[in-house]
User: Fold LacI family transcriptional regulator from Streptomyces zinciresistens K42.
Amino acid sequence: MDGPSAARPHKRVTITDVARHAGVSTAAVSKVMRNAYGVSEAMREKVRAAIADLGYRPHAAARGMRGRTYTIGVLLDNVRNAFFADILDGIRDELRHTDYTVLIGAAGFDPEEQARTIRSLVDRQMDGLILIAPGTPRAEVLATAASTPTVVIGHHDASDAYDAVVDADDLGAGLVVDHLVALGHRDIALVSAPGSRANKWKRTPEAVLSEGYLRAMEGHGLAPLARVHHTAYSDDGGFKAGMTLLTADRPPTAVMTGADVAALGVYRAAHELGLRVPADLSLVGYNNTALAALAPVQLTSVDQAGHTMGSAAARMLVERVESRRDRAMQTTMTPRLVVRATTGAPRGR
Amino acid sequence: MDGPSAARPHKRVTITDVARHAGVSTAAVSKVMRNAYGVSEAMREKVRAAIADLGYRPHAAARGMRGRTYTIGVLLDNVRNAFFADILDGIRDELRHTDYTVLIGAAGFDPEEQARTIRSLVDRQMDGLILIAPGTPRAEVLATAASTPTVVIGHHDASDAYDAVVDADDLGAGLVVDHLVALGHRDIALVSAPGSRANKWKRTPEAVLSEGYLRAMEGHGLAPLARVHHTAYSDDGGFKAGMTLLTADRPPTAVMTGADVAALGVYRAAHELGLRVPADLSLVGYNNTALAALAPVQLTSVDQAGHTMGSAAARMLVERVESRRDRAMQTTMTPRLVVRATTGAPRGR
DNA sequence: CTCGTCGTGGATAACGTTTTACAACATCCG
DNA sequence: CGGATGTTGTAAAACGTTATCCACGACGAG
Assistant:
């Protein structure tokens, strides 16, 4: 009898136990675990049996003291963004049948909080990091990447310190503008995210998107009509942007946004102002998340293949962790327009 | 010159470096870090200064070898469920100003995969675990809880091995039925999740919800009209359920679902069958996620206060980790009905 | 025969922390 | 002043792995 919680934590099986049970050294067991060079088939068999007998599972913290932890850390600002969920699925599927485990740090939007989370991941000896559109200063990411293999998703700023996976957001913007112009629109507004606050990322997804939008408008001779409204990518942000744009002197006949959820906010604003979609207003989202396909919405959007981006990132990262590659590389995905029910010819045509 | 990646990984600052820099023992530094007993104010000051000077950050893996890792692991089946995002936010907010970091393992729905993820978290020496509606066999959760403090969210099965946070789903179901009956409905169907496959959880959220629904129907003398349709909580699952129910001989005039996303699937089915909501069909969701409030939907739903559930879980877990409490406890939240635009009087009234 | 060489397995020193035990010293009380 | 009682700091032993040697025997070439 020793107190109420007598349920003894049942001591862990260690490598020493396995070694003793198999009648070999711990070094041998370790070698088998990592399938390192210098073990005979007989030895391998013997050790495997002992491991199975005892149900041995290596202690990750102890591993982290010397070698790998077999853990990949993912930094995310926002769990609510369905696009990120696609990326996560891609990462998970790629890593499913390997020894690696994926752990997610959800940091929120605050750059300081994100930096803290990145440090946490590094302190916990992650073998590699996948940072999804980090808002931390670029310098900090570079410093992290110097000590831990890192893949950055989203930002177009290239570097030889980290690998990168991006979507050709400028092409995406072009697809949308072309589509709308073909329908007869001329007055097309873009709702994008607020610019980075001096954190040294020059080519964020938003920036590249805006760039592509402006270039496309220019290409159609519509440069004077171009206007970009900045707001948070959220339902509420979209709503406010919509209110501002649609109550302006000369409201646009079409609005494209950098995120589906923001497009739904604009939709709500239009609804409230008595405008019908797409009769009075054409609306285009971005990312083609599940939201866009949803029941009464049927939002025209741009598909970014989040799943593919995630698996590409995971593959690239593992290559680096296992040092099968020592040069930085960058993967660019091509976006695709998915036309649904929220775009049509403008009324006054 | 030593190869292309000459950017030396810049050796970590260790506790030894701090001790040397402050002219004290490593033990003293350790005590200050954990603010343990037996350090003078002067010592504390000296060490603090050294830590700041060197920018020391403790190595979590090394910590994990003896004491805590200051990491809380969260098991999640599905990142897409917005309700879980609320819970996560609650956990994060509760832990924000502590030393703990939250790491999320996203496992998917497969029980085996979930079990693997739980093991991964344990192997990585998490100080505590929060399991959100785990699909793994109950026995496995009990075994885990025996060695690591654990909070289970969702399942109503109580135990003295783990703490639990649940919503009174039976009351929630009652609220919905009462609301619909008050509007004049009698033929009310429930769309719930498929039952657990012999994993020994008897009182899953779905089960308790169904129970509450049946009891409420009975209370109104509508037991003969009660019917429960089981399907996956997804847009597609909801769509199929809706199709089945609404094309039946005697279709219900109102449908309540166990998740908002499924309600939207039913909405889509109704739409496709030419039924208008709420004129021809009243529809109620569950969880009051952001989806429910969305633009053109305005779904009546039941609010579960996910944020509060998350912070309660985190608070309870930390109490256990720091062994300020040694008895299991269970927190039950009261749900609240949020009436929006998808419920109204039945037509044939 | 002698040398290397190769293939295999083991001893053992890290890795960076926490924690236990104890030494040194100060303080208090009778 | 002697002993009991605190207080503050340190030395050193874990913790469970990995990786670097080294030893040993077998074998093939000269």
